[in-house]
Design goal:
MTA/SAH_deaminase; 4-stranded parallel sheet; alpha/beta; 17 strands; EC 3.5.4.32; Metal_Hydrolase; globular; binds zinc ion
Length: 459
């Protein structure tokens, strides 16, 4: 076998986000094939063979690639609607439009969502897709193909809804699947697309949408299905006070107790939001190592509240960051969520001690890898891990006068991405994607957004 080609990156600040938060003021990273071979202070070792490329990264900060842990790609073509609503009113306003999506719309929306994140330093993306109108084509295949074409590492959380208005749920009757249909299609998606290998580019999770849109049976059977297939579980939880009230009225208990009763707490589970959690809810997540996808911008947009991230971290709950769907976070960028997570949590009870810049960076990298079940492979820069990393430019007007590069990245303006590598392959250069045509994607997303709006207006 040919020796792995090496890429040498030198003269950069490095935040490894390893277990000791090791940082180098000026250091090097050596990529060999799809792995990080070595890193450390000063220049790369001399005498390296098969060096295909040497990058002088002066003026840059190198970090692990960002890991997004919650998103709904299809919402890229329904941005800017119902802008002054809370969660339940926003959902009820948008479900009828969402229920009209088809494969070309979902493909364009996936490309738009992925492109926006990838050029901002995301190297691992996820999509929680739960709207599968009858006859709408191979939506899972379209989403997974989009991630593969772009070269982004990816988890598809195959969602589902089977509790519609007639069963006391929130979605309209025509927007849901049957219990058996959802389970069968989810199993098929796992069997077709899930890769459990160390350097997998595609994984699949089982992901019924939320307590107010799925039946108790779908939660319970979904958990059993995931464990039978050896994949992870994802859903929305404890997002709003309205959801808490819904759970008490229908199930006679709060969301966390309801999840526990249906098999939904465990180290193979991560949940989006987790805003309305009391001390015993947080203790239950910590005891079971259930993960959380913290989505600060979406929670603010929908006036859901402030998740107790400092308390979760102190209790040992794994926490990552999420963009959430772009119908509730129009920017669709994860690097801005580092800043928003820090700022929004300081508005909570812990004030200025809530989170610091290093903790925010950890949430967006290693924390994300943890909740996606991939902490052994990605999320920090360590020899042997996969080469998913970002070169942030720190010597321009926006950041050059900020003393510390990690502080600059988190507190400062969104930093330009000079290069982003996934699995050892460069996918971004100077803020532009190398793998796809951004302008063509922009046109396609505009056209599909207009087509969806027309169809929804006629319905
Ligand atoms: Zn969501």
């Amino acid at each position: 076998m040919a020796a792995d080609r090496r890429i040498v990156i030198e003269n950069c600040a490095i935040a490894t986000v390893d277990g000791h938060d090791t940082e180098y003021a000026s250091g090097h990273v050596v990529i060999a094939g799809n792995r990080i071979e070595s890193l450390g202070a000063g220049p790369a070792p001399e005498g390296l063979r098969d060096v295909a490329r040497r990058i002088d990264a002066s003026g840059h900060l190198v970090t692990p690639g960002l890991v997004n842990t919650h998103h709904h790609f299809y919402q890229w073509i329904t941005r800017g609607l119902a802008t002054d609503h809370n969660l339940f009113d926003w959902l009820v306003a948008l479900y009828p439009t969402w229920a009209r999506i088809d494969e070309p719309m979902v493909r364009a929306a996936a490309q738009g969502s992925l492109a926006m994140m990838a050029r901002g330093g995301v190297t691992t993306a996820m999509d929680h897709h739960y709207v599968f109108p009858r006859g709408s084509g191979d939506l899972a295949g379209a989403i997974i193909g989009s991630a593969r074409d772009m070269g982004v590492r990816f988890t598809l959380a195959r969602g589902s809804m089977d509790r519609s208005e007639k069963d006391g749920g929130l979605p309209p009757d025509f927007a849901v699947e049957t219990l058996d249909g959802a389970l069968a299609a989810t199993e098929e998606t796992v069997r077709r697309h899930h890769d459990s290998s160390f350097d997998a580019m595609t994984q699949v999770a089982v992901a019924p949408c939320s307590p107010f849109s799925v039946s108790t049976e779908l939660l319970r059977d979904g958990a059993q299905l995931a464990r039978r297939l050896g994949v992870r579980l994802h859903t929305h939880g404890s997002e709003t006070v309205e959801e808490e009230k819904f759970c008490h009225e229908l199930f006679g208990m709060g969301p966390t107790d309801y999840f526990e009763s249906t098999g939904w707490l465990g180290e193979d589970v991560w949940m989006a939001h987790c805003v309305h959690m009391n001390d015993s809810d947080i203790a239950a997540f910590a005891r079971t190592r259930t993960g959380v996808a913290h989505c600060p911008s979406s929670n603010a947009r929908l006036a859901a509240g402030i998740a107790r991230v400092p308390d979760m971290l102190a209790a040992g709950v794994p926490v990552g960051l999420g963009v959430d769907g772009t119908a509730s976070n129009e920017s669709g960028e994860l690097h801005t969520e580092l800043r928003n997570a820090l700022l929004i949590n300081r508005l909570g009870g812990h004030k200025e001690a809530a989170l610091n810049a290093r903790q925010a960076l950890r949430l967006g990298t290693f924390g994300g890898a943890q909740v996606l079940g991939r902490a052994a492979e990605i999320g920090s820069l360590e020899p042997g891990k996969l080469a998913d990393l970002v070169l942030w430019r720190m010597d321009t007007l926006a950041h050059a006068s900020i003393a510390d590069p990690v502080t600059a990245l988190v507190f400062g303006a969104a930093a330009p991405v000079t290069a982003s590598f996934v699995n050892g392959r460069q996918i971004v250069e100077d803020g532009r994607l190398l793998t796809v045509d951004e302008d063509a994607i922009a046109r396609a997303t505009r056209d599909e957004a207009r087509r969806l709006a027309r169809i929804a207006a006629q319905a």
